[in-house]
Design brief:
mainly alpha, 3-stranded antiparallel beta sheet
Length: 453
């Protein structure tokens, strides 16, 4: 039933979370994005195991009728495709949390692992007993994972609905904070007042459940965006102590590390995320960004291209790949790549990158005409200042660029951190006016910027 897809996907997410906390140092679990690529697949266990580099597969189905749910699941060993364990559960919806825990316990037993019982590794008890609130939360995460403007707007609505039903639902607050965070990061909405609401939601999640990794990771990311970097670091560390496999914490901490001068540690953190989610375009973007802002352009381009192969319809990836190629002196090739992706010519990401490239190539009339179209769009929809910064940088319009940077929000965006590292702005760094609105980039530092996990 397509109407129940949010529920089956939600059960997949919940089981991944439970299994990831069984014994995180001994049992690695592939993340949602990569696992979902095999939904309804006809590939054999051997093929999937080889592609993901795993030894076991947990597969199953969910059927729901009224207030009852049936989960049929089995654990398959990839090497010989033998079934180590199989079970069918038929329970009322109010027992769904116990059911998830029971499945994780059965898998651990089949793999001869002990369920670790410590505050850092065990699954938190259910933080809502309201079935409607839980369903609203699952719908919120379902839409959050799609990462489109419309899906993220719907995710906000569903998380707010979950909170309205159960004001003590910690994960719903973390979900709301995550969604507002992503909407600002993807330049869909202005940072103010979104980050004020997001920070309050993240802090509320931690107050309600101090063992919730999602709350600490959300708050850390928000503080990173607000450039409260020293306050963010221990929150990332706490999130990863609780759940070493929590992907958003790995992604966001990697970004934090490269932006604060620890590129090697950032690459290790991004590599862990990529190992956990090997078929994720987001993981490729993060690893690509880490390499790009650390000055390793060729390595960055490899990851951007892999991301495009995984998700050709993500404008962000095309923009990052084009700017990366331009930084390597290949502006004509970068522009040709962008213009070949005709279905995305309307996206602000590709449009601002095209203005930048046209300007760098001396095609100023075309660049100005395209910039005018972006300015016209800004009359009726939100257009982030970052788009204009790249456009004016490409055109060499120093005064307009400085004006954009001076008027940009001082909090609520990672872009100021990244623009400090982006070679697109190197020609302007010696201008003292530029230094006043965009500080010098951090120096790469030796040492342990990342915690020992």
């Amino acid at each position: 039933d397509p109407e129940q897809e949010f529920f089956t996907d939600g059960m997949t997410d919940e089981l991944i979370t439970h299994l990831g906390r069984v014994q995180p140092k001994r049992l690695g679990v592939i993340a949602r994005t990569s696992a979902m690529r095999y939904k309804k697949t006809e590939r054999s266990a051997e093929e999937i195991g080889r592609e993901l580099g795993v030894e076991y597969l947990l597969e199953g189905s969910v059927r729901r009728a009224g207030d009852r749910v049936r989960i049929t699941t089995q654990l398959v060993q990839v090497a010989d495709q033998s079934h180590l364990w199989a079970e069918t559960y038929d329970r009322p919806m109010q027992d769904i949390f116990d059911l998830q825990e029971e499945v994780a316990r059965s898998v651990a037993k089949a793999l001869e692992l002990e369920l670790v019982r410590s505050r850092e590794s065990t699954v938190s008890p259910p933080d809502t007993t309201a079935g409607e609130a839980y369903e609203a939360y699952l719908r919120g995460r379902f839409y959050w994972s799609q990462r489109t403007p419309e899906s993220l707007r719907l995710a906000v609505d569903w998380f707010q609905r979950a909170i309205a039903i159960d004001p003590g639902f910690a994960r719903a607050y973390a979900g709301l904070a995550d969604t507002l965070n992503v909407r600002v990061t993807y330049m869909m909405i202005p940072p103010d007042p979104a980050y004020e609401t997001a920070e309050a939601a993240a802090r509320r999640a931690i107050d309600l459940d101090p063992t919730l990794a999602e709350g600490y990771a959300s708050l850390a990311s928000i503080l990173t965006h607000r450039r409260l970097l020293d306050a963010a670091r221990p929150l990332y560390e706490r999130a990863l102590e609780i759940d070493p496999n929590y992907l958003p914490a790995l992604y966001w901490f990697a970004v934090h590390l490269v932006g604060t001068g620890y590129p090697d540690e950032a690459s290790v953190m991004a590599g862990r995320a990529l190992q956990t989610d090997p078929l994720s375009p987001t993981a490729e973007i993060v690893q690509g960004n880490v390499h790009f802002f650390a000055g390793r352009r060729r390595e960055a381009l490899v990851h951007y291209r892999r991301g495009i192969d995984l998700e050709p319809k993500m404008p962000w990836l095309h923009m990052r790949a084009a700017l990366c190629r331009a930084s390597m002196g290949a502006c004509p090739e970068a522009l040709a790549d962008l213009e070949s992706v005709t279905e995305f010519t309307h996206s602000l990401e590709t449009q601002s990158a095209r203005v930048y490239l046209l300007g760098k190539l001396g095609r100023r009339d075309e660049a100005r005409a395209l910039l005018e179209r972006i300015l016209e769009r800004a009359r009726w929809e939100y257009v982030s200042w970052e788009h204009f910064a790249y456009a004016y940088a490409g055109l060499g319009d120093r005064d307009a660029l400085l004006d954009v940077l001076a008027k940009a929000p001082k909090v609520g965006t990672l872009s100021r951190l990244f623009l400090m590292l982006d070679p697109a702005f190197d020609p302007y760094r010696k201008d003292p006016r530029f230094e006043s609105v965009l500080p010098a980039p951090p120096q790469a530092r030796a040492g342990t910027g990342a915690p020992a996990l």
